[in-house]
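INTERNAL AUDIT FORM
Audit reference: QA-55
Scope: verify that the stored structure record matches its stored sequence.
Auditor: D.O.
Record contents follow.
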Amino acid sequence: MTTLGILHPGSMGVAVAAQAKAGGAEVLWSPAGRSAATKARAANAGFTPASSLSELVQRSDVILSLCPPANAEEVAASVAAEAFSGIYVDANAVSPATMAMISAILRRTNAQLVDGSIVGSPPSTAKTTRFYLSGADAAVQAVAQLFEGTAVHAYVLAGDIGKASALKLSYSTFQKTSRVLAAVSYALAHDWGVEEDLLDIARGRTASYLAEIDYFPKVAARAWRWAPEMREAESALGETCLPTELVEAAAAVMERWEDVKDLPMGLSETLTRLHRVLD
């Protein structure tokens, strides 16, 4: 039986670790310093309490870190301080650069790092979750096997540390920003009493903009017109005391395409022109 240690089990961490438990793993966690809500979640999931982080590290074959991104390096360092030499899965929403820092921290103890990213809601009997993994093949396969036949579907990415983190942030850049931008758009429509008309327009769409990659060159070719439109939107939002930062940013992005007015371009050239040219 594989022993999985789960660090700081929030709603996602508990749900993911519970799937590993359902697959046959023993799940350890450390109640020290955790909230009553966390303790209740872990107890309801049937996790085995460890007396301390030190005990959890010593007994675990695999450790899964799911914590706020700002704490990811600190958590990795606390595990490294206990001389952990098993498989450490960092499944936090951190950048590839941060993952490289975590790799350097864990290298001191010869731990095997797996870069993980979770996409989707907490897994349950009704919902499945994607768990993308990258890193050394043997360690990645060992983690994937923990979730075989469960609601956590493991996807192995070709390549080393950083791949899974890059995928996570590529997706969340769109997903989370678009959710916030939608709220700002709706707020402006609400202020002017046209929210139902806005919803009627939106309900006519069925596809995600993220999937419409062939449209990106058209956006670039029209950016010379769209950027000023975003500046007008910035003004309209400011007039009703709504946040303007997202549309300001959209205009700034479009202005990187300002020299390609109505020019036909391929996808690769379109994306290349988004990168800032450094002097």
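Auditor finding: record pair retrieved intact. The radius of gyration is 23 Å.
Action required: none
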